[in-house]
Design goal:
Blueprint lengths: L2 H42 L5 H15 L2 H13 L5 H14 L1 H10 L8 H18 L3 H31 L2 H9 L3 H15 L2 H13 L5 H14 L1 H9 L3 H31 L6 H8 L4 H20 L3 H11 L28 H32 L5 H26 L5 H36 L6 H27 L2 H30 L5 H26 L6
Helix pairs in contact: 1-2, 1-7, 2-4, 3-4, 3-12, 3-13, 4-13, 4-15, 5-10, 5-15, 6-7, 7-10, 9-11, 10-11, 10-15, 11-13, 11-15, 12-13, 13-15, 13-16, 14-15, 17-18, 17-19, 17-20, 18-19, 19-22, 20-21, 20-22, 21-22
């Protein structure tokens, strides 16, 4: 084989890996977009039992074809306080089982012999899916076409990888070199490094299967490469955890220790078997006997058995594993949101979640709800400060305001990224409103800041509001709290009845703020307060009315996508 053929084989392999990765992403994003609400509901049930968590992780990962995406989503849930570490651990266990489905599909696609191979048959689905996507108008049909096309492209990539392996198999130098790599620890390391580079254990396992089928490597070598891929797959979760909170870091370490423990266990067992039988009994010989004349199935089945047995081994030790990572990564800073030392950060979203766009949209919504809570909290603090002129909570107020400014910038940045992903029409409609909602909530924070500035002026001038004025401010604050509660019920649950109730409260606030102005003018005429105090009070009434308007705007958003 000349150098041109070698270069062609290398380029074909790279192209095959690229198509395979693209196919996985296409299938994942379209399946997720179609069933996002069901996936969210599925993951919310993980708290019922540890075993159910394993089942949910398995089913969810098998559906979206990405253990990395599942793990990153779990890290996000833990970071936001939605899921406990124990729940996260069990879902990660299941994700490792679910990811073996890809290997089984690849093995199935490599049968055929002298007849038309299943690879060619399944590859044709890429064209069928493309036609469905091109000529259909309904969003759900386009998604179905995307899933079918992605499934077909999976086998197009597989066929290209297999072709390149067949070319390499004709080179004795390549075969001899690969055969010389017999050290199992080196094979595990190579598998881990290659997986970390391409960030997909499914691709690494598929490449190993094609190499075994082409006789480039032995089944035993493929088995240890596959073990290494389990360790390499932890890179995505470690990256996600490194940029998140304490519990997120713990979750990523649970994933790492779980995968490493499985590899250590199986490597030790493999070495023990080989030593006791003087090399006659190995993983390769065992699976060759169970699945004769089907090397692709032998390796795919080992991958499945390896992950299932690892889960069985680690499952009873879950509580010990969780306690270990808690000790390894202790709490070093206050976790409460009201802590004066709290630094601005995102609670629900991170860039790694963009690999699951539908979930990323939901998490963006959760972050906006979190921002609304902070805005309401700061408005309440501002009213308390201006009524009492007690500034003991000013640092907390300033920390909240700093966080609102941070969230405003970061959520908008995130929304732009999500908008460019493969999401359905409803999610696009929601995102269009989300930009405005973030701006509305940031304005609530600005009005709260204005009120604190009024309080500072009053204190500097040694002035205070009358008891009647303070009572009116507190009554208005309570109305705005009620409005906020109804708006959030409408926004979170898409409850239009709650929105109608919020409208009614807003109308009351409009009347109340007008009455505040009239009553205050009367107090000025009666000499009960000074003109300077009156100016501050009128501004507070105006700001309160505008805060109500901004909260209502957030609630009204549901009309545009429900």
């Amino acid at each position: 084989m000349d150098s041109t053929a070698v270069i062609s084989a290398i380029l074909t392999l790279i192209a095959g890996i690229g198509i395979f990765l693209t196919a996985c992403t296409m299938m994942s994003s379209n399946i997720e977009a179609v069933s996002s609400s069901k996936l969210k509901e599925l993951f919310s049930k993980a708290s019922r039992s540890k075993m159910l968590g394993v089942v949910i992780g398995t089913v969810g990962t098998a559906a979206i074809q990405s253990s990395g995406a599942t793990t990153v989503m779990v890290i996000g849930f833990v970071n936001a306080g939605i899921m406990s570490l124990v729940q996260a651990a069990t879902i990660i266990y299941g994700a490792n089982i679910g990811t073996t489905v890809t290997g089984q599909i690849v093995a199935l696609g490599m049968f055929g012999g002298n007849s038309v191979s299943t690879t060619v048959i399944f590859s044709a689905m890429a064209g069928i899916g493309a036609f469905i996507t091109a000529f259909s108008k309904a969003d759900i049909t386009k998604r179905a076409g995307g899933i079918i096309a992605g499934f077909g492209m999976l086998f197009v990539g597989l066929h290209m990888m297999s072709s390149s392996m067949e070319c390499f198999a004709q080179l004795e130098s390549v075969k001899n070199y690969l055969a010389s790599i017999s050290n199992i620890f080196l094979l595990v390391i190579i598998g881990a490094i290659m997986t970390a580079i391409i960030q997909s254990s499914s691709v690494m396992t598929s490449v190993a299967i094609t190499m075994v089928v082409a006789s480039l490597i032995s089944l035993e070598q493929g088995i240890y490469l596959t073990m290494g891929s389990n360790i390499g797959s932890c890179v995505v979760s470690l990256m996600a955890g490194a940029t998140s909170g304490t519990n997120a870091k713990r979750t990523s370490l649970i994933h790492l220790f779980f995968n490493v423990s499985g590899v250590i266990l199986f490597v030790a067992l493999g070495m023990g078997l080989s030593a006791l039988t003087q090399g006659t009994l190995t993983y390769g010989t065992i699976f060759s006997r169970f699945f004769p004349h089907a090397p692709q199935t032998q390796l795919a089945m080992f991958h499945t058995v390896f992950n299932v047995l690892t889960v069985i081994f680690v499952f009873p030790l879950t509580d010990y594993l969780v306690n270990f990572v808690i000790k390894l990564v202790p709490d070093r800073e206050a976790q409460g949101r009201d802590s004066q030392e709290l630094q601005p950060r995102l609670f629900f979203i991170n860039d790694h979640m963009l690999n699951m766009p539908a979930v990323a949209v939901q998490q963006a919504k959760n972050e906006i709800v979190n921002m609304a809570a902070i805005a309401m909290r700061n408005f309440s603090l501002a009213c308390h400060i201006v009524c009492t002129l007690d500034f003991k909570d000013i640092e907390r107020f300033q920390a909240n305001e700093k966080e609102l400014d941070y969230l405003n910038k970061e959520i908008v940045r995130y929304l732009v990224k999500v908008s460019n992903r493969n999401i359905n029409a409803r999610d696009h409609a929601y995102l269009a409103t989300a930009f405005h909602s973030v701006t509305d909530l940031e304005r609530v924070g600005d009005y709260a800041e204005n009120i604190v500035e009024y309080a500072e002026r009053l204190k500097a001038e040694n002035e205070t509001f009358s008891s009647a004025a303070i009572a009116e401010i507190n009554d208005t604050l309570q109305l705005i709290r009620n409005l906020y509660s109804k708006v959030m019920e409408a926004y979170v649950h898409e409850n239009k009845q709650a929105l109608d109730e919020a409208y009614e409260i807003e109308e009351i606030i409009d009347e109340v703020t007008k009455d505040m102005a009239l009553r205050h003018i009367q107090r000025l005429n009666d000499g009960e307060c000074t003109p300077d105090v009156g100016s501050q009070y009128m501004s507070i009434a105006s700001n309160a009315e505008r805060v109500a308007d901004h909260f209502i705007n957030v609630g009204k958003a549901i009309k545009q996508y429900t």
